[in-house]
Design a protein that fits this description.
This protein is α/β, with parallel strands linked by helices. It is about 25% helix and about 15% strand. It is built from 33 helices and 27 strands. The strands form seven sheets. A seven-stranded mixed β-sheet has the order 5-4-18-17-16-6-7. A six-stranded mixed barrel has the order 22-26-23-25-24-27. The protein is globular and about 80 Å long.
Length: about 1000
C-alpha cells in the first residue's frame, strides 16, 4: 500500500476508490450496498433534519439534487430557532464536502509529528485498537485505558464513557467538562432544586415561551453568556424577542457584545472577578432587605435552607487560596439535639416558640407553624447537655459577604459602583426573571463558586419556578432525545461491568468528586499519570473529538506525554493537529448531515437523519461497537456481555453490529417502531402549544401537594434518597437540596450548600468514598486568579476569550466561507492600552503568557517536581492575532478567540505550526490550584503581554487563500452507510 498524506490533492486522487471499499460495522462484509450511483438522475428532494454544527441542534431542511446536498435552510417547525439558521449551520455543506475529510480508516507509517498514512479497513483499525487494549490489560491492567471527547461535532457525548464503563476501568475526560458546563450542570440543581440555567446549552425553556401565554421574563441577567453570538438562531433570537416584549436585561461581560449593546445595564467586569461581584450583590440584597421580593415576600424564610442552623463544631478544611476564610461547616443535624425524632433532619430557631425545632415539610395545615429566624445566633442545648452557639445559614451568608460593599466590589471588578447598584435594584425589581450563567465562569478555578453564587442569588431573590424565571420546569409532554447513556448514569446494568475499586481509582476523582456527575477524570491528574506513571500508567488513548492541541490548556505540556502511550486512536471528520502530532490510527467520523439522532426542541421532536453518506465515514457508535466486538472475540468477558441484552438490561442498550440497527434504536426513542417510521413521522409537534405552555403550573411546581397524581414516589420527593420519610399532603417543595444523610427532608432549596459539603466528604456513589483533602465550601468565596497575583507586573493585561458566531469549540477553522469572514483571531484592545503599547487597528500583535516563557510549567502533582515539556520551547515565540482597537473591551483587558490553522496540514508544511501560531491555549494555565469540587483549571482570566509584530509566514488570511478548501463533491457517494 502506498503512503498517503492528509492533503486535498491526495484525497482527490484516491476518491474514486474510497466509496464502498470497507464496512462501517464490525464485520468487513455484509453491510454495503453495491451501486454505480447513489441517486437518480435529475432528482431533487428535501430532507428535514437537525443541525449539529454546535450543541443547539436547530431544525434544518436540506435540499438534495442528484445525490448531493445543494442548500440548507432553517425549519419553521423548530420552536426555538423558528426557521433561522446561523453561519455554523449553513456551513454544513462545506464541512460535508471538504476535500480534506477523513474518508477511510488509516494507520500511521511515518514518525510523529508527521502526515504519512496507509489506508486500512474498518476491520483492521478496530483490530489494532482491540489488540493494544488486550495487551495493556495483561501487562498493566485495564485501568490503562484513556478515552476523551469534546462537544464540537460529537452528538453522542457519552459514547466514550459508555465504552470505558463496559470495559470496566480507565479514565474519560473532555476539556469542556470541569471547564465548561459541568460546574453549572452539577452544582445548580443541588442549590436551587431545579436545574442549571444555561441558555447556551439549550436550557432555560421558559424564556422561549410565546408572548400570547403571558407571564414573560421581566428582568433577565446574562452573566458571562452572549446568546446573540453563542447561538444566534435560537438563544439569540429568543433574547431579542424577550427585549421586544419589554424584558429588561443586564449583561455582565468584559466585552461589549451584541447583547450588551442592547442591554439596559452593561457591567464590563474584569475577568476572574465574577464571584466578588456575586458577593457584592448578596451584600447589598441582604443589607437592604431586597430578598423580600414583590409577591414573594416570605419566600426566603419559608422556602430556603437559610434559616437552618450551622454546626459551629464542624470546622471545614479551607482552600489554599483563601486561608483566612471564615470556617462554616455543615448544618446541624437534628439527632445531635433530639432523641425522639422521625428521622435525621435539619434545625431552625422558631421565633414564635422561642426554641430550636426540627424543620419539617410544610402542609397547608401546618404552614402557619413555620416561623423561622433568618438571621442571628442562638444557643442550642445538645442532647448530652452541652450547649453550643449556632448562627443561621443566613447569618453565615451575611458574614461571608460583609466586606463586599459597593465600593469594594467596584474596586475588585472594575465596574462603577453606581452601575452595580442599579443592576442589583433592577434584578430585584421582579421575581419574574433571573440569571443565566454562561461558560465564562466555568473556565477558571472559581467555576463551582460562581455556579453556587449565581444559584444562591436566585434563591435569595425568589427567582425560582415563577413565570419568566430561567430556573423553571416548563411544559408537559417533553420531546424525546436519543442520547446513549452509560451504565450507572441513569440506571444499572444487570451485569456488573465495573467494581467499586475501578470507579474510585479514576484519576483525580477522590479529590474532585463533582467529576462523577459525568463519570469523568481530572485532566491535569491524567497528564501527570501519563508523564510519571503515578499512580498508574495510561497506555491506550482513544480520542473522539477534534483537536486536543487546540482545546487543552497549556497545550504544549502534552507533547512529552505522546511518546509514553502505546497506541493513540483518533476519530474525527477531518485531520487536526492532534491527528498529526499523536494519532497512530484514524477513524473517519461522519459529519452531522450523515448521522442519525432524535432531538427534542421544547414540544417538538426533530430527527437528524443521514441526508447522504460519503465514502467510509461512519457514526462514532460504529467505532466503539467495532472495537468492542473485536475485544469480545479476543475473549474479554465484559465486552461479550456488552452485546448481551440480558446483561445490559432495559435501560442500557447493547452495542449494535450494523448501522441500521442503531438507526432503528434511535427511532424507538421517539416511540417509533423503526427508522423508516421515524422518517415518515418526524419532525413532529409531540404536545400542542396550548397544552405545553398553557398547562405549566409555575408556582404549583413547589406549592403542589405530594399526594397529587404522579408525585407520590418517596425517593423522587426526597432527592432520590431511598430511605426518605415523606408526608402525604405536604407541599412538593424543592428536591435534591438536602444532604444524603437527611431522611426527614423539609424540601427547601439550598443556597447554603450543605449538599456540596456532604459530597466532598462522602461522595455520591453507592459506596462510601474517602473525603477530599479540601472541603467543598457551602458558600461562594472569592480569590484573585493566580496569574493576576503572581505575574501581573510582567504580564499586565488580563486575557479573556469567548464564542463568536462562526465557530464552535475547535471546529470549522478549515471552512473556506467562514474563514473568509473571520480569517484570523482578533485581539480586542482598548484605545488606552493600544496607545500605551503602540498598537493600531488592524496591525498584527504578538502575545505571551507565563506558559510560553517557561515561568509556569506543568508540575508533577505527586511530588511537586517540575516537568518541563519540550513544548515550552515550541511555543517560546508566543502567538499572534490581528488588533481590533475598540472601546468594546475595558482597559487592562484583552479578548481573543480560540484559533488553530489547518492550512499547515497541507502538503509540505510544518504541521506543528497548525497549533502553535495562533492558538491561545498555548497561553492558558493547567498548573497551580484547582477548585476542590471539579478540579477546574484556567482558560480565562490569564495575564499576558502584547506587542506589535508582523503577519506570520504561512498562514492563510486573504479570501483567495482558502480556495483549496472549497467543497469538492465526489461522484462516489453511495458506499459508506448505505
Amino acid at each position: 500500500m502506498s503512503k498517503l498524506t492528509l492533503s486535498r490533492r491526495t484525497f482527490l486522487k484516491s476518491a474514486a476508490i474510497a466509496a464502498g471499499a470497507a464496512a462501517i460495522g464490525v464485520r468487513a462484509d455484509g453491510n454495503l450496498v453495491e451501486s454505480n450511483k447513489a441517486w437518480a438522475v435529475d432528482n431533487t428532494y428535501e430532507v428535514r433534519t437537525s443541525c449539529r454544527a454546535c450543541i443547539h441542534n436547530c431544525g434544518i431542511i436540506a435540499t438534495v439534487t442528484n445525490g448531493r446536498v445543494v442548500s440548507l435552510r432553517g425549519d419553521d417547525i423548530d420552536p426555538m430557532s423558528k426557521g433561522r439558521v446561523c453561519p455554523k449551520g449553513v456551513s454544513g455543506i462545506q464541512a460535508l464536502y471538504h476535500p480534506n475529510r477523513n474518508k477511510y480508516p488509516m494507520k500511521r507509517v511515518g514518525g510523529k509529528p508527521g502526515n504519512e498514512w496507509e489506508r486500512i479497513s474498518w476491520d483492521e483499525a478496530c483490530e489494532i485498537v482491540a489488540q493494544a487494549m488486550m495487551d495493556m490489560a495483561e501487562k498493566t491492567g485495564k485501568h490503562g485505558l484513556l478515552c476523551s471527547t469534546g462537544g464540537g461535532g460529537n452528538p453522542q457525548f457519552f459514547s466514550p464513557t459508555r465504552f470505558r464503563n463496559f470495559w470496566g476501568a480507565g479514565n474519560v475526560f473532555e476539556p469542556g467538562c470541569a471547564q465548561c458546563y459541568l460546574p453549572r450542570n452539577y452544582t445548580m440543581p443541588l442549590i436551587n432544586g431545579i436545574g442549571d440555567t444555561s441558555i447556551a446549552d439549550s436550557g432555560c425553556s421558559e424564556l422561549y415561551k410565546p408572548a400570547k401565554y403571558g407571564g414573560l421574563a421581566e428582568v433577565y441577567v446574562m452573566w458571562g453568556v452572549a446568546p446573540a453570538w453563542n447561538a444566534p438562531a435560537s438563544a439569540g433570537r429568543c433574547v431579542a424577542e424577550l427585549r421586544a416584549n419589554g424584558c429588561k436585561t443586564i449583561v455582565i461581560d468584559p466585552r461589549f457584545t451584541p447583547d450588551a449593546a442592547k442591554a439596559d445595564i452593561w457591567l464590563p467586569i474584569r475577568s476572574g472577578t465574577d464571584v466578588a461581584m456575586m458577593l457584592g450583590w448578596l451584600h447589598y440584597i441582604i443589607e437592604h432587605e431586597l430578598y423580600h421580593m414583590p409577591e414573594y415576600e416570605d419566600f426566603v424564610e419559608k422556602w430556603t435552607n437559610l434559616p437552618f442552623l450551622v454546626d459551629p463544631r464542624d470546622q471545614v478544611k479551607l482552600p489554599a487560596v483563601t486561608p483566612d476564610l471564615d470556617s462554616n461547616g455543615q448544618l446541624l443535624r437534628a439527632s445531635e439535639v433530639f432523641d425522639d425524632i422521625p428521622g435525621e433532619g435539619y434545625l431552625y430557631y422558631d421565633t414564635v416558640k422561642n426554641k430550636v425545632v426540627q424543620a419539617f415539610p410544610m402542609t397547608p395545615e401546618n404552614e402557619s407553624e413555620y416561623n423561622p429566624a433568618l438571621f442571628g445566633s442562638y444557643e442550642v442545648t445538645l442532647k448530652d447537655g452541652t450547649t453550643i452557639q449556632c448562627k443561621t445559614a443566613g447569618e453565615a451568608y451575611r458574614e461571608r459577604c460583609e466586606e463586599y460593599t459597593l465600593e469594594r466590589t467596584a474596586e475588585i471588578t472594575g465596574c462603577p459602583a453606581d452601575r452595580i447598584e442599579a443592576a442589583i435594584k433592577l434584578y430585584c425589581s421582579s421575581a419574574h426573571g433571573g440569571i443565566t450563567l454562561g461558560v465564562a465562569t466555568d473556565q477558571y478555578p472559581a467555576s463551582s463558586q460562581a455556579a453556587l453564587g449565581a444559584a444562591a442569588l436566585d434563591c435569595w431573590t425568589a427567582h425560582l419556578y415563577h413565570t419568566g424565571c430561567p430556573a423553571n420546569s416548563v411544559g408537559t409532554g417533553r420531546a424525546a432525545e436519543s442520547t446513549i447513556f452509560p451504565d450507572g448514569f441513569i440506571g444499572e446494568a444487570a451485569y456488573q461491568f465495573q467494581t467499586n475499586e475501578a470507579i474510585q481509582e479514576r484519576l483525580g476523582y477522590v479529590e474532585h468528586k463533582g467529576l462523577g456527575g459525568w463519570m469523568h477524570s481530572h485532566i491535569p491528574t491524567v497528564l501527570n499519570a501519563i508523564l510519571t506513571g503515578e499512580p498508574y500508567q495510561p497506555k491506550v488513548w482513544i480520542e473522539r473529538s477534534g483537536n486536543k492541541f487546540h482545546n487543552l490548556a497549556n497545550s504544549s505540556s502534552w507533547l512529552d506525554a505522546i511518546p509514553k502511550l502505546d497506541l493513540i486512536a483518533h476519530c474525527y471528520m477531518y485531520p487536526t493537529s492532534f491527528t498529526t502530532e499523536a494519532a497512530d490510527v484514524v477513524f473517519p467520523a461522519a459529519e452531522w448531515l450523515e448521522t442519525c439522532f432524535v432531538q427534542g426542541r421544547l414540544n417538538v421532536t426533530l430527527l437528524r437523519q443521514p441526508v447522504v453518506n460519503l465514502f467510509e465515514c461512519a457514526d462514532e457508535t460504529m467505532m466503539w461497537g467495532g472495537i468492542a466486538k473485536k475485544l469480545a472475540d479476543l475473549g474479554d468477558v465484559n465486552m461479550q456481555n456488552a452485546f448481551n441484552p440480558a446483561s445490559t438490561g432495559p435501560i442500557v442498550p447493547t452495542y449494535w453490529e450494523h448501522i441500521t440497527d442503531y438507526w432503528d434504536w434511535v427511532a424507538t426513542q421517539a416511540q417509533c417502531a423503526n427508522f423508516e417510521e421515524a422518517k415518515a413521522k418526524l419532525p413532529a409537534v409531540v404536545t400542542p402549544d396550548d397544552e405545553y405552555w398553557g398547562q405549566t403550573k409555575y408556582d404549583q411546581n413547589y406549592l403542589g401537594l405530594n399526594n397529587e397524581a404522579g408525585s407520590s414516589d418517596a425517593a423522587a420527593m426526597a432527592g432520590a434518597k431511598g430511605n426518605a420519610i415523606t408526608v402525604d399532603g405536604a407541599y412538593k417543595g424543592f428536591s435534591g437540596c438536602a444532604a444524603n444523610d437527611i431522611v426527614y427532608d423539609p424540601h427547601k432549596c439550598g443556597p447554603y450548600g450543605d449538599t456540596l459539603l456532604y459530597i466532598g466528604r462522602h461522595g455520591k456513589e453507592k459506596f462510601e468514598m474517602p473525603p477530599a483533602s479540601t472541603d467543598y465550601n457551602p458558600m461562594p468565596y472569592f480569590f484573585e486568579p493566580e496569574d493576576y497575583t503572581q505575574y501581573r507586573d510582567e504580564y499586565p493585561l488580563v486575557l479573556s476569550e469567548g464564542r463568536i458566531p462562526f465557530y464552535h469549540h475547535g471546529t470549522l477553522r478549515n471552512n473556506p466561507y467562514l474563514r473568509e469572514l473571520y480569517p484570523a483571531p482578533e485581539i480586542w484592545i482598548s484605545p488606552e492600552d493600544a496607545a500605551k503599547y503602540g498598537i493600531e487597528e488592524g496591525e498584527w500583535v504578538n502575545v505571551h503568557s507565563p506558559r510560553t516563557d517557561g515561568l509556569d510549567v506543568f508540575s508533577n502533582l505527586a511530588t511537586g517536581e517540575q516537568l518541563t515539556a519540550e513544548g515550552q520551547a515550541v511555543v517560546a515565540d508566543g502567538i499572534n492575532g490581528v488588533a481590533k482597537v475598540t472601546s468594546g473591551i475595558i482597559p487592562g483587558e484583552v479578548y481573543m478567540e480560540r484559533f488553530w490553522n489547518p492550512e499547515f496540514l497541507e502538503d509540505g508544511k510544518d504541521t506543528r505550526k497548525s497549533w502553535t501560531v495562533e492558538n491561545m491555549n498555548v497561553l492558558t494555565k493547567n498548573t497551580g490550584w484547582y477548585n476542590p469540587e471539579f478540579g477546574t483549571y484556567t482558560l480565562r482570566g490569564i495575564n499576558v503581554r502584547v506587542q506589535k509584530t508582523t503577519k506570520p509566514e504561512g498562514i492563510w488570511y486573504d479570501a483567495t487563500d482558502f480556495e483549496p478548501w472549497m467543497p469538492t463533491p465526489s461522484e462516489n457517494t453511495g458506499g459508506g452507510c448505505q
